[in-house]
């Protein structure tokens, strides 16, 4: 809930102007006249020129001066230069770095400002998850090999079966997480999965700015959807969904150039 410091308020009206659900009115001073309408977006905190508005439940220093001092060229350069990383050093990710990634994740927009995404940071249980995921992929492969008609689908199914078998004989084999030391898993209520996907995108860009290696594991995400054992191990509830899994660590690979991309297909109306 927001708090307005009456003594500090100069009645400029900016908070009411930008409160899109209309929760604030300003006569001489600002007043939270319709608290039920407030979605906790914090625009009133952000826009007030005299810092008269604060937000309960967060540390006082959580709000910081706005910082948009990144040139479009550097922003685009970072976006185009980040790559999916499949070669990691064995160095662990320090907690401070993990915390920077979480700060990026929480900064993203969410529908109705729900902020319902939660995060699971996995280190010690990576080998266990890898075993469960490869067993799941093996099972998916067995089913798909019998039902698939398309040769590329059959090849993919056989790959999954081979991965499972190889993992059983070689505990070093890791075609999903590539020996990375850290996973960051994005979990959300089933009706808010787009928010979790956006949070992961923010996090991936932050990882690029920190010179980390990062990879979306779509395979692991698919396995989690098919495996109650994975969801149990991670403590994911019935009403929740594992939306994204980011594989993170220090990269053991460097890319001096960006990768090619199709030109954008745009319809101008
Ligand atoms: C949602 C999503 C899921 C992905 N899943 C995997 C995966 O399971 N394994 C993998 O090696 N790469 C995965 N990728 C990485 C893509 O293959 C990669 O983004 C694409 O080939 C382009 O390469 P770049 O990210 O280096 O530009 C995934 C990417 C996204 C966005
Ligand atoms: S937090 Fe957002 S919705 Fe709530 S009063 Fe402030 S501007 Fe309005
Ligand atoms: S923006 Fe700040 S100073 Fe202006 S009316 Fe709102 S609370 Fe008062």
Radius of gyration: 23 Å
Q: What molecules are bound to this protein?
A: flavin mononucleotide, iron/sulfur cluster
Please give the CATH class of the largest domain.
Alpha Beta
- Determine the mean pLDDT: 96
Count of spatially separate domains: 2
Care to describe what's here?
With about 270 residues, this protein is of the alpha+beta class. It has 2 domains: about 1-60, Alpha-Beta Plaits; about 70-269, NADH Oxidase. The protein is about 40% helix and about 15% strand. The chain has helices at about 15-20, 45, 70-80, 95-105, 125-145, 150-170, 195-210, 220-225, 230-235; strands at about 1-5, 25, 30, 55, 120, 180-190, 215, 240-250. It has a 4-stranded antiparallel beta sheet with strand order 5-6-8-7. The protein has a two-stranded antiparallel ribbon with strand order 1-4. Strands 2-3 form a two-stranded antiparallel ribbon. The mean pLDDT is about 95. The site of one iron/sulfur cluster has 15 residues, from helix 1.
Quick recap:
With 269 residues, the chain is an alpha+beta fold. It is 39% helix and 14% strand.
Key features of this structure:
binds flavin mononucleotide; 4-stranded antiparallel β-sheet; NADH Oxidase; Alpha-Beta Plaits; two-stranded antiparallel sheet; binds iron/sulfur cluster
